[in-house]
Amino acid sequence: MGLSIRGYAQHRAAQGLPGTSHTAVRKAIASGRITPESDGTIDPVLADAQWAGQTDPAMQRGAEAHAQALEARQAAMQEAVEDDGPAPRSEAGDGPNNYARAKFNREVLQGHLLSERLKREKKIVVNRAKAIALFFDMARKERDAWVGWPARVSANMAAELGVDAHTMEHVLDHYLREHLEIIAEVKIELR
Asked: Which domain holds residue 135?
């Protein structure tokens, strides 16, 4: 059997922890930061750990709380640098800074998303699907222009060389298609 809500508030006051009023304890229960036992009482050891792990230090009052929030943020940033990026933590047992870590990870993700959106709006990056479609259309038009070229120029070339126009078109078409097949084997990787 644990402590009552008022008893738990007195326990926090005796420990020198924030949340020393019964309304603060009720708010912590309502917000899900601490979980009461099935009989409605509060296990002080479990609730203290939950309170520390689920509370945003930046939302606490006083210079000490702000110093803790700054320390937690710096620790999360240092961990992110050491890990080469923030690693999301989902377990409640990650320690007193897991809320700060989660908040930091969220802020980093939002920063990356805003950066990508800004790049798109400034036209620094392009839409990949649109770029591939444009490239494909351009290549198709180029190929079609080359495939029609022997028919357009063979008569003039045959007259200049004094050969049969039909034979000239057939030879040009043969070597042009051979060349286009070689070009088609080149694979372009658009990443």
From this structure: 128-184
Domains contained in the chain, number = 3
Single out the residue of 54, 22, 16 nearest to residue 35, CA to CA.
54
Residue 190 within any structural domain of the chain: no
Residue 104 CB neighbours (<10 A): 20
pLDDT tens-digit series, residues 33-48: 888 998 889 998 888 8
Is 159 within a domain?
yes
Separation of alpha carbons 182 and 14, rounded Å: 83
- Compute the distance between CA of residue 165 and CA of residue 170 in angstroms, rounded to an integer: 9
Q: Using alpha carbons, select from 53, 30, 40 the residue that is nearest to residue 5.
A: 40
The answer to pTM > 0.70 is: no
